[in-house]
Design brief:
single chain, disordered N terminus, 133 residues, 5 helices, 26% strand, five-stranded mixed sheet, alpha+beta, 5 strands
C-alpha cells in the first residue's frame, strides 16, 4: 500500500486489494496439560504476556518468534523460547491438527541446557495425548 493510495481517498476495499492479507481462520484450541497453564500464570508479567502472544501465534497457524524443535520429547514437539529481564522461560508444545494445540510444559530455565526433569515431564504428558480425537 502506498501513501498516495490513502491520500487519494480511494475506498478501503481498493487499498486492501493491494495488501497481502492472510485470510481469517479459526484459531486452534489450546489444551494445557498438567500444571502448564498454572506455570505460565506464575511467570513474571512481561514473560506471561509474551507467552500468551506466542501461543496465540501458534493457534493462528503461524510460527512463534523464537522456537526450536524438541525431538527428545516426541515427534513435532517444539519449545518456545522467551527471554525476559527475570530470566529465560520455555513453553513446550505440540500441534496435533490445525484444530488442537497441546501445551505440554512451561518452566523457567535455570541452566543452559534444558534439564532432564523438564524433558521427562514433557515426554510423560506427550504420551497422555489421545491422538484419535
Amino acid at each position: 500500500m502506498r501513501m498516495s493510495d490513502i491520500a487519494s481517498g480511494r475506498p478501503l476495499s481498493y487499498i486492501n486489494m493491494d495488501m497481502k492479507v492472510k485470510p481469517e481462520r479459526n484459531p486452534s484450541r489450546a489444551v494445557f496439560l498438567g500444571s502448564s497453564l498454572k506455570d505460565i500464570r506464575d511467570f513474571p508479567e512481561e514473560a506471561r504476556q509474551t507467552a500468551g502472544y506466542q501461543i496465540r501465534l501458534v493457534q493462528q497457524g503461524d510460527e512463534p518468534t523464537d522456537w526450536k524443535p524438541l525431538k527428545t520429547v516426541g515427534p513435532g514437539v517444539r519449545e518456545i523460547r522467551i527471554a525476559d529481564e527475570a530470566g529465560a522461560f520455555r513453553i513446550v508444545y505440540v500441534v496435533d491438527t490445525p484444530k488442537c494445540l497441546y501445551v505440554l510444559h512451561a518452566f523457567k530455565k535455570t541452566t543452559q541446557a534444558t534439564s532432564q526433569k523438564d524433558i521427562d515431564l514433557a515426554r510423560t504428558r506427550y504420551k497422555t495425548i489421545d491422538w484419535s480425537q
